Amino acid sequence: MVIISEALYGYIITIISRIPIILFPTLGVVLLQKTGMLGLGCEGIMLIGAVVSYLVVLYTKNFVIGLLASIIVSMIFGYFYVTLLDKTRFTDMALGVILWLFGMGFSSFLYRAIIGVRPIYPTIEQLPPICSWSLCEIPVLVYLTRLNILVYVAILAVILMHLVFYKTLFGISLRAIGDDPRSAELSGVLVSNIRLRSSIVAHALMGLGGAYMVLITGGFTENLTGGRGWIAIALAVLSGWEPKNVLWVSAMFTVVDSLQYYIQATFPVIPPQLPLSMPYLTAIITLVLVRGRSQPAYLGKRYEKVET
Amino acid sequence: MLDQKSFFLGRSILVFLLTVILSLLLSSLFFLAIGLNVFEAYSIIIRGSLGSPGRFLEVLVKFVPITMTSLAAVVALNAGFYNIGAEGQFITGAIVVTGISILFNQVGLEPPLFLGLLIVLALGFFSGGGAALLAYVLKYKFNANEIVFTVIYNILASLMIEYLVVGPWRDLSIPEPLSLPLQPSMRMPVLIQGTRLHAGVLVLSLIIVGILLFQKTIFWYMLRLLGQSQLVSELSGLNTGKILMYACLISGGLAGLAGGIEVSGVHHRLVRGFSQGYGFIGLIVAYTSRLNATTSIVTSFFYSLILTGADPLQRIYKIPYSAIYVLLALILASSFIADFLIRTIGKRVGRWSL
To answer: ipTM of this predicted complex?
Structure first.
């Protein structure tokens, strides 16, 4: 049996608990793009989710309320996104960019307006592991109990989304809408309804990603997510819009992302901007190397209700 | 019965008026929400932008980069190429201009003033354009989504400026992290002594004339056709790849040129947080003016009035800079809402719909 040193073990735990930061938004983007919407507002929604959960947890000291608050706020944005998309003349790309800019401005504004400028910024407690009593010191399972609850939620979400996509009628209609909404509508699928539901759930996942990032780092700074929403879109392309691929894609990204801290600590000679740029370079290389796979045929196009 | 031209003119005037009313309403609500006196806030904004000749010149200084980045966005978006990287291209232009100046200093070369300025303009244009062409090549050779690429390029560019300012190009005679200054011959001459108004305004006026003429050319028509439908333009025998390439070059070039002019006219060196989000503001302007070049020039002027007026507002009330982004987003939203309302009412009334 290989004996893993405590330090390495702690390192692995840190990496695993950082996976959901990118996994939740990527899942959200996959869901949204399977339904034919681009969801470029991902970064903005993540930031809004992050700032809401930070402020709520700071004042209520309760993780559950904070997570719920950010999910609800992101759901409201999801509702507005799909409504504006279908009812007004916004193009999908324009709406995404607007949401992104709005999220960037609004999140840092909310943070500055409520927290203000202080010498030390208040931090919140990090998410606890699922079980920290001595009861849990079971020889093998101890490794599993040191992860927090949302890591398991993330894995469950991946499995659930796979099942919904490929085993339920809802999933079939959803994929049909992504490929051809008019045919889907003519065969009796309630397109607007499914688009609405998919958008709300997807935005909730994006907001959850931002909220989780706050809970794992313990604080909010302006532009906290630093482009992870955009990276999530690149990863969704890499995963080929398959929920089960999202798991390893985001795990791989998190390893690269975490490597930067290791490099910064081990090689202080290297300017810090080089390791900082690694995740972005990875995303670009991903984009370049992966040729467009079976992209949903109707991705990003305007859907108009069939007039009967 | 109205004829078509006056119908569209009348509708755009209605949309414009409704946009102004709605944005005043929404921003009043916003000011109320953050606890400001609404009328005082408006009077500070107006006095801060139009109150004195000095402030008005400051508006013009901001007008230069905002117009250029908004035109950059307009050109690319009209061609259906989603170049969100105006921010990155802006920074690239500034970095390349500063780099060449530092190189000249090391070699001991000093071009005469006119040549120096020409170098600034050419380098700014082609480095920004090159950055946009990179996105173009990646899209058509490797099928990489241009939006994701250009956004990530923005982040990489700002990391680059951070590195240069603290690292190799740092001016060691100053405690703050600033880069070495530009050569005097590569700085835009100041037009009015004692103000910041520089010769970039003249370059801008040339560009505005150029864009207004450009709108009348067949190339602009082909570019818009390509943006509307790639299929149609291919079927009508256009060389879509070439059109798009030039559109990218012009779009990125305008953003890069703005960066070059900004560094040579205002800062004279690279600073941290150099761009202040001009690329994003340009994008907002482009969407507010519905991707129309002429309208976007006028809209840029309004936005630079608001941005300049918001500076004293921000200083007096100590509200964060990001509040201004929220304000801009509200104006953009109200322009879309106004458009939507006029359309809906027009359909209801019936006579307005053509």
So the answer is: 0.81
Residues in B closer than 8 angstroms to A238, CB to CB, are none
Is A277's CB within 8 Å of B159's CB?
A: yes
pLDDT tens-place values along chain B, 354 residues long: 567 778 778 888 888 889 889 998 988 988 888 777 888 888 988 888 888 888 899 899 999 999 999 999 999 999 988 888 899 999 999 999 999 999 998 888 888 888 989 999 999 999 999 999 999 998 888 878 788 889 889 989 988 998 998 888 888 888 888 888 888 888 888 888 888 888 889 999 999 999 999 999 999 999 999 988 888 999 999 898 999 999 999 999 999 999 999 999 888 888 887 878 898 889 889 988 888 899 999 999 999 998 898 888 888 877 777 778 788 888 888 888 888 888 778 777 765 544
* Cross-chain CB nearest to A287 (options B82, B148, B287): B148
Contact B152 A291 (CB under 8 A): no
Q: How far is CA B82 from CA A35, B86, B136, B221, B328, in A?
A: 21, 10, 10, 18, 21
CA-atom Rg of chain B in angstroms: 21
Q: Is the Cβ pair A276, B159 closer than 8 Å?
A: yes
Q: What is the dihedral of CA A271, A276, A277, A282, to 10 degrees?
A: 130
Give Cα separations from A48 to A65, A225, B146 (angstroms): 15, 10, 25
| CA–centroid distance for B197 within its chain | 18
The answer for residues whose C-beta is within 8 angstroms of residue B17's C-beta and 6 or more apart is none
Q: What is the pTM of this model?
A: 0.87
Which tokens hold the place of B259?
């960066």
**Distances in Å between the alpha carbon of B207 and those of B72, B204, B220, B283?**
11, 5, 15, 18
Quick check: A280 and B152 CB within 8 A?
yes
Interface test with A, best of B30, B158, B321, B326 (most A CBs within 10 A): B326
Chain A residue numbers with beta carbons less than 8 Å from the beta carbon of B346 are: none
Contacts of B145 in chain A (CB under 8 A): 233-234, 237, 287
Interface contact flag, B322 A112, Cβ < 8 Å: yes
